[in-house]
Structures are given as C-alpha cells and as structure tokens.
Amino acid sequence: MRIPIYQIDAFANEQFEGNPAAVCCLEEWVEDDLMQKIAKENNLSETAFFVKKGDIYELRWFTPEKEIDLCGHATLATAYVVFTYLDKNIKKISFKTKSGVLEVFKENDLLSMIFPSRKGDKCKVPNELIKGLGREPKEVYKSRDYMAVFETEEEIKNLNLNMEELKKLDSFGVIVTAKGKKVDFVSRYFAPKAGVDEDPVTGSAYCTLVPYWTEVLKKDEFVAYQMSDRGGVIFCKDLGDKIKISGKAVLYLEGYVEIE
Fold it and tell me: How many CB atoms lie within 10 A of CB 174?
C-alpha cells in the first residue's frame, strides 16, 4: 500500500516555524491500528488522515499515542494540501470530524477555520497544576483542557515545568495564557498525556482562549502568539458559539508511506 504524505508547517510564514503536521491522503479508510502506528512513526504532535466522500472530506487526527477529537493546526495543514495540490479551484472545504463539520476557506493570503467555541468554567486550582507549572496562576478555567491565566508574558516564558505532575490532571492538556505586549494575548500548550510535552501552535486551544479574552479585553477580534520555541501567529475572532482561527501554512515535505 502506498499512501501519499505531506508535512506542512501550519501557522507559519516560512519553513521551520509554526507547528508541523503530517497529512496522509487515503482513498478509503484503513484500520485504526495502522493509522496509530503511522502517527507514532511520524512522531509529530499530530498526523491527519482524510478521505474524500463526494463534496465533503472525512478527517481524523492522531497524536503519537491516541486519536483526538479536535486539532487546529493539522486541519489547517490538511486544507493547505487540498487547496494547493488536490483541488485548486475550490475556495471552501467542509471536513466531517468527531467535532462535527468544520469549514475552512481561503481569505486573502490566509486560511481561515470555523471551530466550535469551548468556553471554560472557572474552577479551583488543582495542586498538580501548580506543581506541574512551577507556580500558581491567578485563575484557572476548565473545558477539554485546563486553562491557567497569568499576569505577564515573563511568567509564562519562565515556567518550571514538571510533565509527570501535568499527566496526573483530569484533562487532555493544559493551556497557559497572559495578556501580550505586542499582541493581544500569548499562550503555551502542554499535552504530555498524548505524548506531546509542548505543542508548538495549538489551534484547538483557541476555542477556549478566544471566549475568555473576548470577555477580558471587551473585543472580539485578536492577534495572538504562541510562545513555543518555533512560535506561531494566530488571527482569531469570536463568532458567538463558534470562533474563526486564521493562519498561513508552508510545505516542508512531500512523499509516500510504503506499507508492506
């Protein structure tokens, strides 16, 4: 079996920035176990697999350890592959996913995604979160992930991380955020349970970040920056029960996976 594969730097203006994702183009679905093995072999935070069914694309995402229900940067990467290499004449793509139908469309030089909003509920600060981040946030919210809010960018940059403590939390991952100096807000994202200690740029995290900053900053359109080593700029807008996440993408690798 020969599976076309692309590696795309998502939320990046040029190669070696943003978040790399693998995108595998399938003619029909293969066994889940095989997709998981491919994702583990790729050893990227996410590998996306898709199958075209009429006018819609079925899309699934795998970390090196497990399948997940929502991934922003791998969706952006998949849309880039479809727009650039497979169907150059279309302007909008509909992806059928475990989180419902997700739309991606071209908007000037950006690719824009419409994702569900996941507003967090304010909660007590778990001890494991304090130990895992090395300092106590000023407040914490919970949706799929914990979101820890800090006062400054410096606090986020200088966290003393303990991934074993973060693994003990009853959440998929951990978002940390603070108001930005040159952008509206900054963030980092950790998902050690899924085999990803720190994710470079995490589109799905903005489903929780955007509604929070909408309330705090009293606006609905933002420029955000994820403070990983690679870094990435995200343009986002609050649409009520949905959010818009926009960014650029760049090809890094094109080839085939050969399955015997």
Answer: 26
Rounded CA separation 223/16 (Å): 21
Which domains does the chain show, CATH number per domain?
A: 2-116+246-258 (3.10.310.10), 121-238 (3.10.310.10)
Our answer to whether residue 46 is catalytic in this structure is yes
* Half-sphere CA count of 104, side-chain side, radius 13 A: 26
As a whole number of angstroms, the distance between CA 224 and CA 211 comes to 13
pLDDT tens for 60-95 read 999 999 999 999 999 999 999 999 999 989 999 999
Which of the residues 14, 31, 46, 128 is marked catalytic? 46
Q: Could you give phi then psi for residue 228, rounded to 5 degrees?
A: -85, 175
Structure tokens at 160: 């003393």
- pTM for the full predicted model: 0.87
